Amino acid sequence: MCGHFGYSKQAYYRGQRAGDKLERECYLLSLVRDIREDMPNLGGVKLWKKLNSSGVQVGRDELYRLLRAHDLMVKHEKRRVVTTDSSGWFRQFPNLVKGLEIKRHNQVWVSDITYVDTLSGFVFLSLVTDAYSRRIMGWFVHDKLNTEGPLNALYRAFLQVRASEIEGTIHHSDRGVQYCSYQYNTTLGMKRMNTSMTQDGSPYDNAIAERVNGILKREWLEQEVFVNIEQVRVRVEKVVALYNGQRPHFSIGLNTPDSIYRDLTGKFAFHMY
Prior knowledge:
Layout: H1 9-38, H2 44-53, H3 60-69, E1 101-102, E2 108-118, E3 121-130, E4 136-142, H4 148-158, E5 170-173, H5 177-180, H6 182-190, E6 194-197, H7 207-219, H8 229-245, H9 257-262, E7 270-271
């Protein structure tokens, strides 16, 4: 048949392979776009891990080549607004986590505040995160840099656990006046949690909290335009669910925060900075 139509057998099989390759690339691109619809800035390695864990066998080099060819590599830009005012006269607490070995969930919670831009001006996002699993335990979007926002995030985190599970838990934050306030620390004391704070104001002293803030902003929130605080609140609720339940993390073996938080085997251990 090949000879009859003027083609060699080698040319025929090359054409077949090219057709199979094109079909495979289209299939992979459709999967990538489906994942990126919910997680538009998920990096290449995490994307590769997620595809393979879903039963799609693809090599990392093959995926990277495909992403580059279709301009699907993630690009990040850095912006920063200061949300910490550590100049207040409030009581300062010691740093209880420096060098501490983290071996289980609810051993250390870290808290921080970041900003989200809207057409109506900046609003602020307070987060409480479990240091071991990287799971966001509580969040709240607010329009003022006072204690109320972080306190509401803390109250939401309390709803995720029984009181006995956080007795003795270390709550670590920067030296912002919100976290130094009497109201915030009285609330921690009522739950028998221990207060820990950075000492020199360096972001590396609260690196896990800063990292979580950055992920939410770079991979989701900075890619969208919000009109007002209500729109931010609706979106953050969905984003936190995706972050906790879908996004793999290098720091926890490319697992999701939800899966590690539920795992009581203590498979990971690390020292805080």
